Amino acid sequence: MSRVIALERFIGHIVRDAEGRKLGHLHEVRVRREGDDLVVREYVVGSAGLLERFSLAQFAREVVFIFGIDRMHGYVVPWDSLEFPEEGELRCTRRAADLQRFSAERPAGK
Amino acid sequence: MKKILGIALGIVTSIGGFLDVGSIATSAQAGAAFGYSLLWAVLLGTICVIFLVEMSGRFSIVSGHTIVDAIRKRFGFAGFIVPFAASLLVNLLVLASELGGICVALQLLTGIRFQVWAIPVALAVWLLLWLGTFDVVEDGTALFGLVTLCFLVAVFTLGPEPRELAAGFVPRLPGEEHAHYLFLAVSIIGATIAPYLFLFYSSGAIEDKWDKSYITPNRYIATLGMSFGAIISMAVIVVAALALKPEGIRVEEYEQAALMLVPAFGRWGFYLFVASLAIACFGAALELSLASAYSVSQAFGWNWGEDLEPRSAARFSSAYTIFIALAALIVLSGLNPMKLTLFSMAITAVILPLTALPFLVLMNDARYMGEHVNSHFSNIVVLLIVLLAAILAVVAIPLEIIGSK
Amino acid sequence: MKNIDLVRDVLDTQVLDREQRPLGKVDGIALELREGSPPRVAYLEVDGVTAWRRLGERYARWAAKLARHWQREGHPFRFTWRQVRDFGIDIEIDVDAERAAPFDLEHWLREKLIRRIPGGR
Amino acid sequence: MRLLGAQPMKARIAFALACSFAGAVMRTLLALVLVALAGCGDQHEQEMKSAASWSSTALAVARYWLQGDLPDTYAKRVLQKASEELAKGPLPDASEPVNQMIEAIGKRDQQAMRRLIAELQAQ
Question: Where are the domains of chain D?
Fold first, then answer.
């Protein structure tokens, strides 16, 4: 059974982990080109993902004293671990501790 | 050779675009009320606008995109729409001020009330956009804009004391009327760093199809053009300080400002002022209408371009048509054009961070800019001036409203 | 470019038609969530109402009410990744803008406004 | 492109200049904000200034008109405005001579104009 969702409406929404703890906001969706299709690999959650989206990691580090960037962090959620419910918040089926960390200093997967 | 011509033309263009109703009104008030002591505000604004204009040209050259286009992509529709709407609203107020400036010039000349002129003037601006091409608008504005050089000539005729003049560039507390001084400082900065200037410039670079060989010329055009514009703006302050302040005339209305060139030019002075006001405002009104229509089209991904026939860019042409009509309505409503202008300029300063900061983020994005990303120096200069102006404006506007009942 | 960041690189990107004419922006991305295999991008949308929906359902309703004046058929306009001819800073797709749904407003304005003004032809 | 990297010396001088300018701007504006917040707007003083300015405007217009430097329509219009503003303000008496100036322009009566200037100055 498959279902179609409007991705743009979930961008910026809060994601909670398996234990109900807040992981952060959904900021990026990484896809891979497979033939004529774009297939999701992972989701980036948390404020570091926002910086990544703005290509700001470099700039932010330079004005670290203004934004306090060292406290920014994020998680990489694999494609099979994020649920888009009909109602309510986005849920990650894993616990925060089991997820790959994502930091603005070293963009993961690069 | 062609490039040198281009540079020269660019410089002239920016003089035409730089001096507008905002600069004339704020500078005339500042000079009449506070002598040379607000010259530093023009300097501060000019430094910032040189950086911003150079950046916007560089951005379009390197990325092939206009600023609005790129801001929407980076910040998403939801993040983009609020600053965008705010900047359009301010553009509308400023356009109304420009149209008001032309109407006032006609009122000074004919004695017929300015509201009566609102519709003919709006029609004239619109007709030029409807029938003209980008070059006509840009170069025409530029050539006629040279009239405003008369303020510079007036400075030499009146001969200010150089040492006092230099002192005006050092910020100092005035003896009295602090709230009004602050408000004028903010309005001058707002008038100098008009966001439509760099939006227009960035679209212009695309319309003129600048390639990477224009990176260096772009720097000269931005620096020299904006500096010349600033010099004329400063000249207005100096002339007002020399011609109006000693008489005890404060500029509360354009009628009073119109006297400022008489000591220098005698009977020609009045006509030169009227011509400068009308032409500068007309040029700025053209650029503003275009800049606004550009941003709407670029925001929604429509086809745009002043060189297209109205028919093949219907949404673009409709955008400026509607925009000019709305501005004409504001003029018709009979708001005092001088007050409208000053407040539009101060509000411009308030929303400056909304347009300038996202732009700054783009300028540091290597995906767009590659090796041409901003230097730290230019980031910091723009960041500081823009934030400073905005914070001050937030303080100054309520104070001015309280002060003037 | 094998890996693409959907939000950064695709959403809100300028869409051009096959003759490089601006068609609109990528206002929405539809993901197909599949049982047992990773989600795929089903289609991309160019549609004002979709864009306004991102601010909230209320804005979408207003936009839809307004858009009813000029919209003909084929809304919202959708295209698949298969139709993408070039993907860089812009997305170029294999359609004719003049005949595509996002141009309804353009046609409507030509018809109702531009044509009635002298010099508009 | 990196300004600081490419031209260390020039950039350093520019930087020093910029810093001192920025410092002066900051100090002044901070002081201004404080002062402005403290003693914001004396209503009466404001009105006095405005009235004085309009009467000066009338005087200047009259003088320039005598020199033949201003067209009649404009001169009349400013004087009209000045008289209205004066009538509203704390110096309503000054509006009368200004009104007579408008008549003097209508009759192109230079003699009367000189007298009115003196009269207005006396106030």
Answer: 3-38, 43-122
Q: Which among D93, D95, D77, D97 has a CA at the least distance from the CA of D85? A: D95
Q: Where residue A56 sits, what CATH number does that domain have?
A: 2.30.30.240
Residues D13 and D19: their CA atoms lie apart, in Å, by 10
pLDDT single digits (tens) B189-200 = 999 988 888 888
Cα of C6 to nearest chain A Cα, Å: 5
A51 or B350: which leads in pLDDT: B350
For residue C93, the cross-strand partners are C84
Residues of B with CB under 8 A from a CB of C: 63-65, 69, 72-74, 76-78, 80-81, 130-131, 300-304, 310-311, 314-315, 317-318, 321, 368
Nearest Cα to Cα of residue B77 among D3, A54, D80, C53: C53
Domain B2-403 of CATH type 1.10.443.10 = no
Domain positions in chain B are 2-403
pLDDT at D32: 67
* Parallel, antiparallel or unpaired: strands A22-34 and C91-93: unpaired
pLDDT at B321 over 90: yes
Enclosing domain of residue A97: 7-102
- Mean pLDDT in residue range C52-80: 89
Read off the pLDDT of residues B84-118 as tens digits, 9 standing for 90 and up: 999 999 999 999 999 999 999 999 999 888 999 99
- Taking only the tens place, the pLDDT of each residue in B29-85 is 999 999 999 999 999 999 999 999 999 999 999 988 888 988 998 888 988 898 899
Structural contact between residues D46 and B178, judged by C-beta atoms closer than 8 angstroms: no
pLDDT of B175 strictly over 80: no
Spatial distance between the Cα atoms of B213 and D96, rounded to a whole number of angstroms: 67
**Residue B296 Cα, gap to closest chain A Cα (Å):** 22
CB pairs under 8 A between A and C: 95
pLDDT at B185 over 80: yes
C56: Cβ contacts below 8 Å, ≥ 6 apart: none
> Rounded to whole angstroms, how far apart are CA atoms D93 and D41?
25
- Cα separation, B354 vs B334, in Å, equals 29
The ipTM (two decimal places) reads 0.81
pLDDT above 70: residue A65: no
Whether the CB of C118 is below 8 Å from some CB of chain B: the reply is: no
Q: Do chains B and A touch (3 or more CB pairs under 8 A)?
A: yes
B274 within 8 A of B63, measured Cβ to Cβ: no
The residues, ordered by sequence, that sit 6+ positions from B252 with a Cβ below 8 Å of its Cβ are: B338, D50, D53, D54, D85
**Alpha carbon separation from B196 to B28, B271, B308, B329, C12 (Å, rounded):** 22, 28, 21, 21, 23
How many structural domains does chain A have?
1
Q: Do D29 and B388 touch (CB under 8 A)?
A: yes
The continuous run of DSSP H or E covering A78 comes out as strand A74-78
Average per-residue pLDDT in chain A? 77
Domains and CATH numbers, chain C: 6-116 (2.30.30.240)
Which B residues in the span 369-398 are in contact with A, Cβ-Cβ below 8 Å? 376, 379
Residue D55 clears pLDDT 50, i.e. is over it:
yes
